[in-house]
Design brief:
single chain; alpha/beta; Rossmann fold; 4-stranded parallel sheet; about 35% helix
Length: about 140
C-alpha cells in the first residue's frame, strides 16, 4: 500500500458553501488519508455564514477560497465528488483515473426564514456533509 494520500475534489456550483464544508471536514476528520480540494462550476466568494457555522465545530475554513474547476484540471484526482445536481450536470471529464461520485445536499445559501432558521439549515447541511465525509469508503 502506498503512503500517498487519496486526492479528492469536492465540487458544487459556487464553491461557496457545500464543497467548502466538505473540504474542511475532509481535512479535519481524515487529513491523514485524504488530500482535499474544492471547486465550483460557477464560483463566487465563500459564504461568511459557512465560515461561521464551521467554526462552531472548531473547523477553521477561513483560509479557504473559491476556485473554478478549471484551475484544478491538471491535478490527478482519485475521486471527484459532486455535491449538487448542477455540478453533476456541468462536471467536465477528468483525465486519468478519477472516479466520479454524486451525492446531492441541499443548498443552505438558498434558505429562507429568520436568521436563526437559516443558520439551522446551514447547521443541518454541515452535519450531513460531516457524516458523509466521515463514512466515505475509499
Amino acid at each position: 500500500m502506498s503512503d500517498e494520500k487519496i486526492k479528492i475534489l469536492f465540487l458544487c456550483t459556487g464553491n461557496s458553501c457545500r464543497s467548502q464544508m466538505a473540504e474542511g471536514w475532509a481535512r479535519h476528520l481524515r487529513g491523514d488519508v485524504i488530500d482535499a480540494y474544492s471547486a465550483g462550476v460557477m464560483p463566487f466568494q465563500v459564504s461568511q455564514r459557512t465560515i461561521e457555522i464551521m467554526a462552531e465545530t472548531d473547523v477553521d475554513i477561513s483560509g479557504q477560497y473559491s476556485k473554478h474547476i478549471y484551475e484544478l484540471t491538471e491535478l490527478d484526482f482519485d475521486y471527484v465528488i459532486t455535491l449538487c445536481d448542477n455540478a453533476k450536470q456541468y462536471c467536465p471529464a477528468f483525465p486519468g483515473k478519477a472516479k466520479v461520485i454524486h451525492r446531492s445536499f441541499d443548498d443552505p445559501t438558498a434558505g429562507t426564514g429568520s436568521s436563526e432558521e437559516v443558520k439551522a439549515q446551514f447547521r443541518r447541511v454541515r452535519d450531513e456533509i460531516k457524516a458523509f465525509v466521515r463514512n466515505l469508503a475509499l
